[in-house]
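[job 0412] stage=complex_fold ligand=nickel (II) ion status=START
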Amino acid sequence: MPEKITRVSLTLPERLLQELDQSLKARGYASRSEAVRDSLRDFLSEYKYRKSLKGNIIGVLVLVYEHDVRGLTDAIIDIQHSAGEIVNTVQHIHLDHKNCLETSVVRGPANKIEKLVERLEGLRGVKQAKLMIVKK
Ligand code: NI
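[job 0412] stage=complex_fold status=DONE, emitting structure tokens
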């Protein structure tokens, strides 16, 4: 039996939509829906992977965010301080007039690191939060 399909509507920044449309042809996608479905599968797969991590881990967390979103920089710093025992270093790079990139080396219990990533990625103005696990 075919899977039931549900239609949803999204609000996206104009520029993000333009970039999506430009990448569709180059990547051979027939429609926006197809590309968004694949993106969602990646999004969920990454989440499930993070949730499956156990024990003590070491990783690098990469954040890209808009520093001019009100209160965001303070919120990120507060979260990093409150997780001080697992955030070992933070490197900040000013990407351009609007965007910042931060890499943090994180070390500690997987569930605490997962909580940290969840708190950061959900903040308004955070565009990317990627956790790369480094094998010991
Ligand atoms: Ni910056």
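The pocket of nickel (II) ion is lined by residues 67, 92, 94, 100 (CB under 6 Å).
[job 0412] exit 0
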